[in-house]
Write a structure and sequence with these properties.
Number of helices of chain A: 9
Shape of chain B: globular
Number of helices of chain B: 7
Number of strands of chain B: 0
Number of domains of chain B: 1
Distance between the termini of chain B: 49 Å
Helix content of chain B: over 70%
Radius of gyration of chain A: 18 Å
Number of strands of chain A: 9
Order of helices and strands of chain B: HHHHHHH
Oligomer: heterodimer
CATH class of chain A: Alpha Beta
Strand content of chain A: 15-25%
CATH topology of chain A: Rossmann fold
Order of helices and strands of chain A: EEEHEHEHHHEHEHEEHH
Strand order of the largest sheet of chain A: 5-6-7-3-8-9
Chain lengths: ~230, ~200
Amino acid sequence: MANLLTINHLSYSRNLQLILKDLNLELPYGQIVGLLGTNGAGKTTLMRLIAGNYIDRKNSISINTETNSAVRKSLVSFTEQVGGWSGHPRIFKIGNFYDALYEDFNLTTFNQLLSNLNLSPDQRVNQLSKGNFRKLVIAVTLARQTDLYLLDEPFDGIDSMTRKKIISSIIQWKPENATVLVSDHHVGDIANLLDQVVIIKDQHVAAQEAADTIRETLGKDIETYYEDFYREEL
Amino acid sequence: MFSFSFGVLASLVLAVILAVKQERVWTAPLYRLLPLSETKLYIGNVLTNFFSWIYFEILVVLLAFIMGPTSFVKILQTMNNGSFLEYAVGAGIILIFPTFIWCSVSLVHLLTNTFSDFLPINIQRISRVVLIIVLVYGLGKISNLATNSFTMIFASSQATSDASFYLSFIYLILTTIVVSIINIYLLKNWVQATPKTA
């Protein structure tokens, strides 16, 4: 089977600053992949480029062999697609909004995710705490039935119990063939979830390795493997 | 008369609100991540504003009639010496002019956004202000030149003042289309979403 995501020689700069340089990456179907790197390494920028928030002018990115931006957007569910509503809508209205706009949005799944994450459909967005808002973001993102999920720091501001709930939601609600690309600063929190890791350093992919290989062949845990790339800087 | 004045004021406020809403769509990830081509997003957004405007203007006219039927009829009587076509074109200008303004505002916004991406992040604020001033001045000059050329072509055809009125309507539509084509090109190739955290 061909790869779900293929990136060839992607370079990206903005405001006279080179953020990604000659980046290559291939992701297969049905994996949970950790995107690791320090602050400012370019993880979020890479996700924005994959999702279509930023413009890939050279068509370096293809999902399911599709380089067309509008088609790519239909194949990606990105946490940044949530937010920016006018007013302070109730959560059920937000569900209706996405249900009307995305063919692959499943309202039943959304409501079940809300229930799992202890969110009430009648709550207003402005009444949510930072952690509860992150839960809403996760619910909206996972309620789409698509090929690629991009979760940019999904556990930011979330307590450990909820973190576990979100992790089990990801495993439970991810379609079997779908791939999840998840970035997080706290590597240890997501280590058990991952099938492979991608490390971004010096504006490109410094390493891409299966989690099993790291643990069994290299004899390291994922956190140590990741930190080894920054050993000189520690 | 009061209801007419109120209608004009309310229309101005609505025009500003709709302009702000339209501009938000071009850079908000919520809208830019929708699985649509930029052309569909642009046309959808502009038409939403256009129909909101028409809807509001119909309400204003109805309200003016309900609040003062006598003065409403009087005003209609004062405009009794034109043809149906003249009134239709006049109404068309009133309805399309805001769309022309919104599209022009979008052009300045999208151009500013495009150029800003090539400037250092630490001078963004000042450079944006300078860019807006330069762009408004430059686009004003271009618009003047186009209007003068159009008037000269029209003058050489020795048309009547009625024709001038109709041609200005066509000019408004053509300019809106040209500005929209440039806007769509910028959206497709240069203008990127601006996430809150960026």
